[in-house]
Amino acid sequence: MNKYLEDLIKLSKFDSKISSFEPQIDNEKEKLATFVEIAEEIKKGINDTYAQIDEIKSKRTKNNIHLAELKSKLDDISKKGAIVQTEKEVKALQLEEEIAKEQISFANEEIERLDKLSTVKEEELKELQEKLTEEENGIKELQVAVDSAIEEINKERNVVYQDRSELLADFDNKVLTFYEKIKRWAKDTAVVPVKKQACYGCFMKISDQTYAEIIKSEEIINCPHCGRIIYKEEETVEA
Hints:
Layout: H1 3-81, H2 87-169, H3 173-186, E1 191-195, E2 198-199, H4 208-216, E3 221-222, E4 229-232
Helix pairs in contact: 1-2
Coiled coil: 83-159
Pfam family, one: Zn_ribbon_9
InterPro entries: CT398_CC_hairpin (IPR056003), Oxidative_Scav/Glycosyltrans (IPR052376), Zf-RING_7 (IPR003743)
């Protein structure tokens, strides 16, 4: 095989490998991001539940204050009852007393409802806090695994960069410039194999004459359809 073509194939494979590292790292980070997102949602749920509990306590306090006012009102009505003289005044006090008692009954029922609701919310809060602890422990474990995976990816990337640098040390400048021009638009498919007599960049069929030249591998050949550098890949027989 033409030495320049062989170098181009190696360089293209290095570049393709280098391009694959960042998505691998992003994929590892995404694993962690999913767990972090879940933990943040749980934290939001905890904060919302705290706010609901505070609101319940505030309502209960208001009802207790109102209840105390109503009881004080009943005491006043009782005192007035001892000194009223007319039937009209008695009936007015009785009506006022009935209304106060109804309001007391409603306030007690509301306090009872709020107490039950508070118990439910406290249970929900406890469950959320336990779930958050579990998620945070999972995040810590996953963080270690992700950091380790990223470290291995970076080690492999450094090796590929080193191998690429060594290859470029003796690379022909004209051939490199030619490759870089194609790479600007073809990205990591600047150099592609020919399989079943088709360019694996544009998947167009190669003519017999061009294919014969590709098989010889004596020159650097561009695909007549897309302009990529093409070569005949060694075929392996599968068992």
